[in-house]
């Protein structure tokens, strides 16, 4: 984890639903801007055990008290304790997501999916919620390259489509957490019937990932990033960017289709 610019106040708010009465006592101590002390001194002052303090740090997404006190002291020393310049924090969160993406994107899987896109004229993109919004971006971009793309946004429709799709169709499933059991069953059924079905997700251990033809891992949102500070579809859009870039790089001629769609707007 990159510690710089992490906002303690947001870390507390994100984890608040998991807090016990003891956790709230610890959080209140630091929100009151009390001085930095050893774990034993903190335990005595707050009236909790040292183990409770360690568990508290883990609940807010840190490894130990040392990491927490680094952040805490940094924000005590700032002009506005327990806060930060909003642009600096947001830029750091963007950087964290980019760093994750750098380490998890598999170029071999990108190549496999882009070749599958090249082989198929009809593509069905399955995704709900924010993933469906990313699916609309996929449709817009690859549609302008000459592909027929349909975005399926609810599990009932996915279950309906699973039995009428054939090996002529390509399915791309967008699901950041990949924890929807109904979608997992659909993915398993599709691949069992020989239909290429690729998953884009941040969860490498999901049932969907185990059943899909291949899984393209993207960045996850965790901690305070999940409070809405970063749009939930961003990791999906970044993965789609890489697919699009690689696809166009494989066949530069496809970009002519995109250019041709600009013609009506030039009149």
Automatic annotation (TrEMBL):
<dbReference type="InterPro" id="IPR036388">
    <property type="entry name" value="WH-like_DNA-bd_sf"/>
</dbReference>
<dbReference type="InterPro" id="IPR047640">
    <property type="entry name" value="RpiR-like"/>
</dbReference>
<feature type="domain" description="HTH rpiR-type">
    <location>
        <begin position="6"/>
        <end position="79"/>
    </location>
</feature>
<dbReference type="InterPro" id="IPR046348">
    <property type="entry name" value="SIS_dom_sf"/>
</dbReference>
<keyword id="KW-0804">Transcription</keyword>
<dbReference type="Pfam" id="PF01418">
    <property type="entry name" value="HTH_6"/>
</dbReference>
<keyword id="KW-0805">Transcription regulation</keyword>
<dbReference type="Pfam" id="PF01380">
    <property type="entry name" value="SIS"/>
</dbReference>
<protein>
    <submittedName>
        <fullName>MurR/RpiR family transcriptional regulator</fullName>
    </submittedName>
</protein>
<keyword id="KW-0238">DNA-binding</keyword>
<dbReference type="InterPro" id="IPR009057">
    <property type="entry name" value="Homeodomain-like_sf"/>
</dbReference>
<dbReference type="InterPro" id="IPR035472">
    <property type="entry name" value="RpiR-like_SIS"/>
</dbReference>
<dbReference type="InterPro" id="IPR000281">
    <property type="entry name" value="HTH_RpiR"/>
</dbReference>
<dbReference type="InterPro" id="IPR001347">
    <property type="entry name" value="SIS_dom"/>
</dbReference>
<feature type="domain" description="SIS">
    <location>
        <begin position="113"/>
        <end position="253"/>
    </location>
</feature>
């Amino acid at each position: 984890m990159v510690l710089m610019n992490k906002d303690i106040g947001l870390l507390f708010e994100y984890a608040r639903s998991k807090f016990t009465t003891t956790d709230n006592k610890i959080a209140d101590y630091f929100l009151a801007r009390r001085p930095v002390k050893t774990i034993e001194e903190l335990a005595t002052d707050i009236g909790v055990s040292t183990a409770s303090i360690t568990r508290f740090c883990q609940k807010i997404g840190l490894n130990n008290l040392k990491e927490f006190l680094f952040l805490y002291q940094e924000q005590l020393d700032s002009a506005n304790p327990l806060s930060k310049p909003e642009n600096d924090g947001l830029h750091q969160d963007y950087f964290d997501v980019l760093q994750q993406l750098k380490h998890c994107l598999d170029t071999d899987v990108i190549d496999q999916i882009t070749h599958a896109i090249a082989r198929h004229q009809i593509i069905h993109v399955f995704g709900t919620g924010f993933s469906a919004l990313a699916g609309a971006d996929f449709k817009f971009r690859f549609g302008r390259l000459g592909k027929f793309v349909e975005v399926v946004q609810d599990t009932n429709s996915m279950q309906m489509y699973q039995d009428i799709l054939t090996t002529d169709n390509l399915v791309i499933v967008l699901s950041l957490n990949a924890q929807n059991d109904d979608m997992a069953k659909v993915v398993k059924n599709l691949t069992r019937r020989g239909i290429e079905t690729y998953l884009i997700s941040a969860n490498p251990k999901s049932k969907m990932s185990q059943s899909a033809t291949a899984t393209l891992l993207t960045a996850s949102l965790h901690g305070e990033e999940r409070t809405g500070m970063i749009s939930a579809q961003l990791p999906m859009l970044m993965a789609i960017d890489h697919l699009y870039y690689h696809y166009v790089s494989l066949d530069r001629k496809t970009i002519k289709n995109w250019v041709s769609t600009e013609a009506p707007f030039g009149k």
